[in-house]
Amino acid sequence: MIANSVSTLSVDALVFDAYGTLFDVQSVATLAERLFSGQGAALSQLWRSKQLEYTWLQSLMLSPMQRREDFAAITAHALDFSAEALHLPLTAAARHRLLDAYLDLSPYPDVATVLVTLAPMPRLVLSNGTREMLELLAATTGLASHLDAVLSVDAAGVYKPSPRVYQLAVDHLKLLPPRIGFVSSNGWDAVGAKAFGLTVIWVNRAGAPLERHGPKPDAIIGSLAELPALVGRA
Amino acid sequence: MIANSVSTLSVDALVFDAYGTLFDVQSVATLAERLFSGQGAALSQLWRSKQLEYTWLQSLMLSPMQRREDFAAITAHALDFSAEALHLPLTAAARHRLLDAYLDLSPYPDVATVLVTLAPMPRLVLSNGTREMLELLAATTGLASHLDAVLSVDAAGVYKPSPRVYQLAVDHLKLLPPRIGFVSSNGWDAVGAKAFGLTVIWVNRAGAPLERHGPKPDAIIGSLAELPALVGRA
Known about the structure:
2 copies of one chain form a homodimer. Chain A has 9 helices and 8 strands. Chain A is an alpha/beta fold.
């Protein structure tokens, strides 16, 4: 669905969110269920919520002189809180395995094909993950060869949806914001990118409601497979 | 519980969070259950989560030239999202009643007695609510007569836990941050106030885990009734 009446979006580059957009985090939930039978879904959902919440809160509460923690540390803190909240006995070994699961995600099945189809348009990643986490993911999944750059919020010192994060894509690409297509499956990320001024495509795989706290995306698609046609590269 | 080894905290004024700290939001859940039998808890929990999430996201994503929405608007948007996410048919009348419920909350039973006991120490409210919402609540519950001031984030143009919000209490009281006791039942609010430099008392009525994304509170109490002894005014 395109929000306005044109049939394609005119952009000169595409910037992708990582977690939940290119990479499927379902394997984390599967491992959580193996470790805590009957509680895997509850743990992985609370963990993901707290992970995001901590990125937003640290970004908002800290003065410029205070340093935020990186995404690996935030992810570990969020896991510790979630296990305690659900009264799950988190051994050091289980904790280690769950945190490692975030470093070993699979791309959604259509990702590699879509990235190849989109070439030679520049294709970037812009994610909350640390540079280390992201480079490891891109290398082990083989996606690195289809990506022109992997940008981490580390370079901005703050998390999404701060405008300083989306500015990283503008600085790297040297394009005006509306010429950059930003692709995310996270509704709040789509809203933040649109408020900044990027052209936004929300990948709404789960049929979630539209977020109500900011501007709507320029287009909504059900899977990445719809992306090439949307930007005139089918 | 006092986090360090002293038996009382030395502060010259007390600043209270409103929603969930002085005012019990349970009546909102009760009404939600009357309107949507079997779904009241799910609706009120998701509504509260989205309400907070929207305050954080708007505070973080907007440039200084963009205006955040006030807490009444955020609260309405969060309700609309939550009802749609849970597939609940929200009529205009039900929506109106639920939003009105936020204007007609009861204080926890011990609040008035505690505020009286704490006098003549200055006692303030500092809340995400709009000035209008807060003044109405203070007036209708009779708490206004036990409060020296009611401060809304409206004066800062941003939501908690931005340091600019906690600065409002410093500016009003003309005290150094550690001389101000900040009382909140919201763990994330307690962390934000402590990162800013206030002396923080977390009212942990539900026995929730400690948040992991920032500094610990100076003291943790199970109900407001423990507060006067904690600050040497029993």
